[in-house]
Amino acid sequence: MSFAAIRCIRIKSSICFKNPFRRYLWVSSRSIVDSAAKEGELRVFIVAGEVSGDTIASRLMASLKKLSPLPIRFSGVGGSMMSKQGLKSLFPMENIAVMGIWELLPHLYNFRVKLKETVEAAFHFKPHVVVTVDSKGFSFRLLKQLRARYNQQSSDAPVHFHYVAPSFWAWKGGEARLKGLAEFVDHVLCILPNEEAGCRSNGLAATFVGHPVLEDVLELNMGKETALHEWQITGNGENFRKEYAIPSGATVITLLPGSRLQEATRMLPIFSNTMKLLKSSFPELVNVIHVAPNQLVDNFITRSINKWPVPAILIPGGIPHLKYDAFDASQVALCTSGTVAMELQLARLPCLVTYRAHFITEWFIQYKAKIPYISLPNILLDSPVIPEALFQACTPTKLAFLLMELMSNKALQEQQIVAAKSVMELISPSNRTGTNLAHPGMMSTLPIYTPSMIAASTILSYARR
């Protein structure tokens, strides 16, 4: 099949697509795939700086390999999940996993060194596509410097995609800052439905692909007779309790202290003191502590567990079925704000969301934020469905009180469970679910319904303007 001609690829439903959301898939002589075809491979430089980004990027890599009519070669920065898809990271991803203002200062020199190293590596790799995943502090600097480097050399620049739009809707003046991104970002892959319109209205091309957490549903519910629109995962809590010898009458509280070392070191002591306060009210209290697939975090939690006030079980990250089994075995969860709040919604496990940072970072957040919530479910519903204990209010005494209230109040638990379905529907690309797309060079159609598959097909069908 010649890539030079412009085609419309017809599929079973007789509907055609320009991208997964339009009626036609146009593959022109200016497309990424066509440019790569001349060289016999598609080179993708991909960067993720955090555990959640590592998961998103790894799934995108897998989807690109499934959809691409050409062999793909990857280079960039990532973690253990991306390495399973064939990436040899330039350096440990943890070297750039820093968030905050004051928290960044001790790492600033190293941050700049790694940024320069990444720019050099990307330029010499000669990619057709550069994809940065979240971690906007590092990602945007990388894309900006790389674009400037290509402009200086007067050579054709690769297409720049950024996966996970910056939360412009959360900050004062956030939307105005989108205009400047168009200078070095060609396309944004959005995970929330309101972000696509917000980006486009500010001159930034964007596509809503759905929230990455939905991938867990499709992966873990495969083969089960579960209605996809329910967007729910039911783990096997009974087996989990048996495997870890948890007494039948025990109260199990899941703890998720965060995926970054700075989060874990700040939050875990608070969680420990909270459990110390609760153990008198719950004599058979057991904690399940989820350890992110970050070696620094793993080492810190493993050392800390020696002084834990109640029996605790450590669960390694990167094993979805084990994570959801643990959720199903728990009464409630105590978590640091992040993607885990959405995972707990999938599991329908009532939770309490917390967050602490350096006081300068906290002051900045309170000054610049224009929304009253920090957890995404509350933001999406514009309602405090999930209790939050933030900043100075995040104390062991306060957390113990809120957890006891949540465990004893069935109405509060039910409120979270009912709201979860609405949250999942909001982040789902339901109007694209079940669509089939045939890509040039493929022998058969592939299902396009996961966020990563939609993102991959958007990248592959991108045409230079």
UniProtKB/TrEMBL annotation:
InterPro entries: Glyco_trans_19. It catalyses: a lipid X + a UDP-2-N,3-O-bis[(3R)-3-hydroxyacyl]-alpha-D-glucosamine = a lipid A disaccharide + UDP + H(+). It holds the Pfam family LpxB. Signal peptide: none annotated. The keyword Lipid biosynthesis applies. GO terms for molecular function: lipid-A-disaccharide synthase activity; phospholipid binding. GO terms for biological process: lipid A biosynthetic process. It is an enzyme of class 2 (transferase). Its EC number is 2.4.1.182. Keywords: Glycosyltransferase, Lipid A biosynthesis, Lipid biosynthesis, Lipid metabolism, Transferase. GO terms for cellular component: membrane. This is lipid-A-disaccharide synthase. The lineage of its organism: Eukaryota, Viridiplantae, Streptophyta, Embryophyta, Tracheophyta.
